[in-house]
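Lines hold sequence, tokenised fold; shown next:
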Amino acid sequence: MTSPVLPTDIFRLIIGYLSPFEVQNARLVCKEFYELSKLRSVWNALIHKHALHHNIPIPGLPPPLALRAHHAGPAGDISRALDALSALELEKRLLRALRLRQNWTSAMPVVKRRFNLDAIVQDHRIVSVHLLPNGKLVSHSVSQHFPRTAYLRCWDIDEASPAGGPKCVAVRELRRSRGTVVDKTSSEVRIAVTRDAQVNILSFDPSETSDPEKAFVTEVVDGEAHYIHFFTGTTLITGDAHDRIFFWDTRRPEEKAQLQNHHLEDRSLLIRDVVVTEAYILLLRTNTLELYPNPSSNMLADGKPTVIHPAHVHQWPWRIDIGLLSLRRQPKSRSNSADGIYIVMRYGSYFPWSINLLHHYELRANPIYSKGMPVSNTNVPFDFPPVLQDTIASPVRLHAISDLAIGPYGTAVWTDSHTEDYFDRADQGQRLAGKFFPFSRSQLDDDDEEDEGEGIELSDQVATAAATSVYAYHEGDNWVSVAVDETEGRIALGRDDGSITVLEYV
């Protein structure tokens, strides 16, 4: 006697109570279960329930889809991107995402693959390293002695061979460069470079496969700039020789808006990070956090650059040594709520030792902010001041180098000097540690019964939390730069000898 075949809608209802791995086991029961477990509608529902609703990124999407899904628009964009995938592709990507999240947030994540990228020349030091959403890695290295030379290099991480590792697909020597900024949201490799007070945009030409030295194509942009603070798409934030800050579009370099804080006594204070949206610009300086309206529609006044004053300025209690901002990616289940900003920083100190803490702040969405009105001092998108969520123990020895990277899904990774747990000594070695920041109670849906968190008391000495993951450690002291890709489960470590190590956790 054969068992009756379950109607598809009833089977899908039952599947809703199973994990994706249990669904794989269920298909071994009988032919009917096997066929039903291969339905696209089943895996589409599972990927929404077990990944998107829990803010888990989906590895393996083609770059244009990954870009649209992970860096722009509401979570509905992800659903549209997934519509192009088959049932088998949905299944593979969901299982990969869940395995990555389990390993990524564990106490000691297991490295699945490791690549070592050699230095281009001797006596070079990695200044910055970037993992891009298109599977590329970009590094900037500088010579440690005069005459100063610099190199930009690009590797294709997705096409890494098991034996040879990633291939360097582009390289460019830079002379008289004052700095570089990588467009981290583009589906292409694009880098803004300042040279002799002029802006050049370097783009990677994938058709040039024979000679990496010819693979970077240069576009010269009209308009003067001594420093570049931000670059995405056609938008630039630059500084001139007088430390004035300008916001402008490379398509209209004659139209600029000056971002000016009249209360800032020292305009040379470094800009640590920038977030730009259609409505506002958020500048993280050494001593302040400044919110400006986006002046895209009003760049000139009487033929001169429009002067934009901040809608709000927050003063930090101490000088910031290193700090980063991230526009927090909203889970699909909360896509109707406003975006928040999370901030991770390490304060400096006037004493001969570092303040051995990382501070995690949350800039919460203002519930009465009107999106239809321009940002002003009476209509700001966030509630100020930022709320301190954690002070994280992260000791750094005197004169030791520490770096920090954060992602839009809640991961922060950093290097520090906490090594006594691994080597029984604290005078040498480095640790690559991290912490995953789940959405706070203030970010839950309005119908949740949780009370809003009030944060913790600021301290320069007391830690309220510790790293939740230790990704790597070693007995050397040559890690100088770190980058993270939460979606693909990668961390890149730049060294002071010009080499780079890439760690993969899925």
Q: What stands out?
A: The first helix runs from residue 8 to 15. Residues 8-104 form one domain. The chain has eight helices and 30 strands.
